[in-house]
Amino acid sequence: MNKYIKTAAILGIGLTTSIAAYAGDWGHGGHGRHGKANMEAIMELPAETQTLILSTMKEVREENKGLREEVQTTREAMKEALTAPTFDAEAFNANAEKLETLMAQRFSTFTDAVAKLAPELTQEEREVLAQIGPKGPGGRHDRNRNTDSE
Question: Sign (positive/negative) of CA torsion 45, 50, 56, 57?
Fold first, then answer.
């Protein structure tokens, strides 16, 4: 029995540490998609499910890491085209199309990972995944929109 308690304590400490690392790395002070409320929802899931969801989100983040820099560069190029002394519509539109493609790739990576993960979860666990999951275009800007009245 003593060995079981020690193993459970070590597992609990390890899981808590990994969740804290996840929250610190992705939480951004409680703002955005992975804020405090989302982490609290994840923490109420079974330990195995927490690990599965968090590791999947980490994989998505790693896979999208290269795109993040390209998105930033493309946004800067759009801004430069827009704020140049002479507006270059062709350069602006080319960068806008490129940005749209990059954002779609990032979103697709995320939704593919969610689609792969979802069959392994119960309906209740998928509801938590939906809470933290893909928001679609608009992302954080749509988070406070009241859709009940529409």
Answer: positive
Structure tokens at 96: 């806008």
Query: b/e map of 57-68 (b: 16 or more CB within 10 Å)?
Result: beebbeebeeee
Give the distance between the most distant pair of CA atoms in the chain.
76
> Is 110:134 a contact under the CB 8 Å cutoff?
yes
Tokens standing for 108?
């697709």
Res 9: pLDDT: 62
**For residue 11, what pLDDT is reported?**
62
Q: Which domain holds residue 92?
A: 2-134
Residue 143 forms part of a structural domain? no
Count H helices and E strands in the chain, helices first.
5, 0
Q: Average pLDDT for consecutive 10-residue bins of the chain (150 residues)?
A: 67 59 45 64 86 89 89 93 92 93 91 91 88 59 44
In CATH, what number is assigned to the domain containing residue 15?
A: 1.20.120.1490
Q: Let me know if residue 139 belongs to a domain.
A: no
Calpha distance 88→82 (Å, rounded): 7
51 within a domain of the structure (yes/no)? yes
